[in-house]
Amino acid sequence: MQLRKVTAASAAVLALALTATACGSDDKDDASGSGGKKITIGIKIDQPGLGLKTPDGKYTGFDVDVATYVAKELGYDAKNIEFKETKSADRETAISRGDVKFIVASYSINDERLQKVDFAGPYLLAHQDILIRADDNSIKSPEDLNNKKLCSVTGSTSAQNIHDKLAPKAQLQEYGGYSECLTGLENKVVDALTTDDDILAGYAAQDANKGKFKLAGFKMTNENYGIGLKKGDADLKKKINDALTKMVKDGAWDKAVETNFGPANYKNEPAPKIGDVVK
Q: What span, in angstroms and rounded, lies between the C-alpha atoms of 199 and 47?
């Protein structure tokens, strides 16, 4: 009798231990997307309209909406997404080290990057453009930037591209950030600001800037934004591409564009076809 009591007690302890182990496993990452596993996604946190971390700690923008949708299709609840700031120069390293599962951060697909990482998408076709004051009707073509003060951020090649190819007499102004360029544009210290049109639209769509600026619509380059992931991960690439296809089909893509860029009168391109990189 005593032996049976000890055995029963041991069995009870073992059952409790197994139950605890099973419960604990829900908190760990797994490959199926079940339970409470978490995912880390690289984004920008300083680009309004694309990827922005607000003062209250929330994340907003088109890239954030795309990342959230894709993660959901992969089996992750929004509450289990960890967004990680990934600056342009650090993107390939963050992917190769496994710091992030994938990156959605105005990440243009090009041949050099394809040597290091794979891309799903593209999910947005952007173009280099300029932003001008809403009441400025003097700049109707890139050539009209000759003798105008053209602003971009330090280290960017956007303004130099215009100077070299389209408006050799443009007066280039380099500021530390886009917000400084916007202030200069509003105060008529500079005449135009240049970078990708979706980035410009995001800044112009901020509440403080609504009605002050407009996009010129010049479309001077093609920027195919893709979702960067570890090279050779064909399974994840397919799953992300399937999620992007669904996002377009069910209207969530159009809704995200309108929400994040609409106030700036952004004339977006239609959602690109998966795998169709426009040169």
A: 7
